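We now fix the convention by which a protein and its fold are recorded. Here is one such record, which you should read through line by line:

>
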Amino acid sequence: MPDVKDRAELSGPRATPAMRQFYTFKQRHPGCLLLFRMGDFYETFDDDAVTLHKALGVTLTERTAGVPMAGVPYHAIEPYLRRLIEQGYRVAVCEQVEDPKQAKGVVERAVTRVLTPGALVDESLLADDEANVLGAVAFLGAANEPGAGARCALALVEVSTGSFTVLDCAAAELVDELMRRGVRELLYAETADGVAPPRVKKALDGAGVSGSARPAWHFRREEAMEALLRQYGVTSLAGFGLRDDDPAVPAAGAIVRYLRETQAPEGIPESHSQAARSALAPLSHLRPPKREQGGGFLVIDAPGMRALEVERTVRGSATGEDFSLVGLFLRGGAGGGCRTSMGKRLVREWLRRPLAARGAVEARHACVGMLVGDRRMLEAVGDAVEGVQDVARIGGRVALGRATPRDLCALGRSLVKVDGIVDALRVPAGSEAEDAFAALRARLERAREALCGLAQEIGSSCGDDPPGHLRDGGLFRDGVDAALDEARLLQRDSAAWLAEYQRALAERHGLPNIKVGYNKVFGYFIELPRAQAARAPEELRRTQTLTNAERYTTPELKQYEDKVMTARERGIAREQALFDALCARAGALLGEIALFAEAVAEVDALRCFAAHAARRGWARPEMTDGPALEIEQGRHPVLESILTDGFVPNDLSLGGTATALALITGPNMAGKSTFIRQTALIALLAHAGSFVPAARARIGMTDRIFTRVGADDALHAGQSTFMVEMTETANILHHCTQRSLIALDEIGRGTSTLDGLALAWAIGEFLAGAGPRTLFATHYHELTQLEELMPGRVQNLHVAVREWPPGDPQAQIVFLHRILSGRTDRSYGVQVARLAGLPTGVVSRARELLETLAVSHEGKQAAAALKGASSERRGAKEEAQMALFREYVAHPAVEELKKVDLERMTALDAFDALRRLRGMVE
């Protein structure tokens, strides 16, 4: 593409007014694909045209010789935009903001929006069940501050709804925070060399989000403060609970500047008039930043979210159905899922970030319990929220000038449901959930007072079947506006008017053969036969002479013709004006619309939790401040929904009066991983406010859930599977507390047997001593000796299996999936391999080798050495180090050697003794 720093440099086919205009906008929006509206198409030129051709497969042509051009139709732009955003492109949309018919010279244009992965508001570009979050990060301290103590500040905005949150966290936890928040795009301060700083690149790669470099001055405190004060029209941030020196101010100011540039950067969208836009302040739906304090939520890091499959399964489903924990609640079925898009997003948020405060957790349990116990109320609440549209995002589109007629009608239909929701939330006085439901009703009633008039106006003005776009007309009912009715009447009843006008002329002037007609060339006309032309009254003005007739017009007919010819345009323009007025009315109530949306989302999310608990027979967990974890008849929440009656429940007692660490042994495929994951998920659900899949559960408040499950690598970062395993385990050991819950699966299997066993043993000892509630599944059966070495801290559990027929080398293995006390000493790996379909010859050879290897006592000797090292460590640490992996074995030759008296032996005696000792060891 030519350098457009100086437009005077353009020459040839690139020097036309329209092309100069294109390059001007291209210069203002570097890094964006510029879609340039020209008539019925959005066109691109030069490199952008080639990119569009490759990305979408559209035809590549030339505007004039040497200028590549490609375009897409304006009326079908949304699917193309979605595909471009999914491929990671940033797109600037340049609209015609002047009527081409009235333009003198080149049509005036403006870039009305810039689409980026994190700044989307259009319904067709967003998933209804997931927030689309834009983030900005500002690192605190020196630019290259090392160490685990480094921190950063985050600003997070959900553009489509206007939510705005700021917080700070450890720089080392930035990836986890981005994933928990669902960030799609991260803003950061650009560097002199244009390359993302290493810690930013690490965060972008780790979280899989798009990065956008912004001018460094946007992150300077003074400029950031100016942007925030201007946005909210205040002189201080104190009213929002933020100090002027808050560390998140730079990130918050930078994100506000970015939104101003991307949402309505230069002009007025075609679908919104100047009058309506002037009634709405820029980003008027963006709520003031709310600081989030740490400690209010149970922390699950990125590996834990993946291992527990909270949001998505590791491998996906062959049927395409979502079998993640979130998917369980969203897909519902038989009334179990959320009824609104807002509820779906809130359930996802609750499961991503469960609560860590006991009072808040129990308040949610009380509400869910109330709905579970009163099925009529549960059904009434579901019916009340049914049909409430995504008013949170509709409000955002109204504020940004992108609302459609269907958005407005959906808003009106949703707002009228507030009365039914309030009535459905009435609970008996004195019930445990009375205060919580009263607070929800109060929020809804405040919204109702403000929104009642708007809902009635929309309902009375707009039709039941609104068009997709105002250009189609037909949004407003007849009788709403006289000018609109007149325009419609002209379009519908022109034939009747002409017939009536003809009759009136004939009667008034005594001309029975007079005719009023129309053709496309001359328009409306009055025609008299040539024989009667001499009797034509003075008010008729001749316009055309035919062979057998004369044609005339009148001022009245000409005026009617002008009205009819412009009736459609005037009708559309009048509907636009009425639509803009309603949007401006809604824009003045964005705060109340957001209040209504939040309350409905919470009601729907609680109803969803209750519906699942009622359908599945889930129990209300008892929350305690102690470290207890007691589960009776626990089940995996997702697997039980898939297997129905085939899932085997299990009990667990961990922490509190029981031991804190459970070592779980057993064969592959027996259910060890399922058991440890279901325990973590039960704890997660309890803290999210849901009932849990168990007959009874008593759960101590938890600060973090750690998991180390499965094999993974990070080759792009130069990390092997074992390195990733050790890195994640190190993070667990450094950050766990007695309030943590840890699920470990097969630690140490990525290296040699002795290395892995030593590491697993040491990690088990550490966790047993530190005291977090830990489930440790392993095939290192030697670790089960820790129960003897650390009584009261370690317990052995195993998964029950049976061989049938017993003692037969070819026996079938039967998985019972029952977790029982005690240890197991076999892994049944060969049997499982046979079930997996390994060739018979390979399985038979494996059995032979297994019998041969069983003769070796290396593993047992190593276990004995480890056991000895653990015992001696308490009294003589140095001797324990020397004894590691060595075992003193009593042998007759050794005992005989001890009896030899070297001081009194002759050479012949020594020879005889040596011969006897040799005979003893042969």
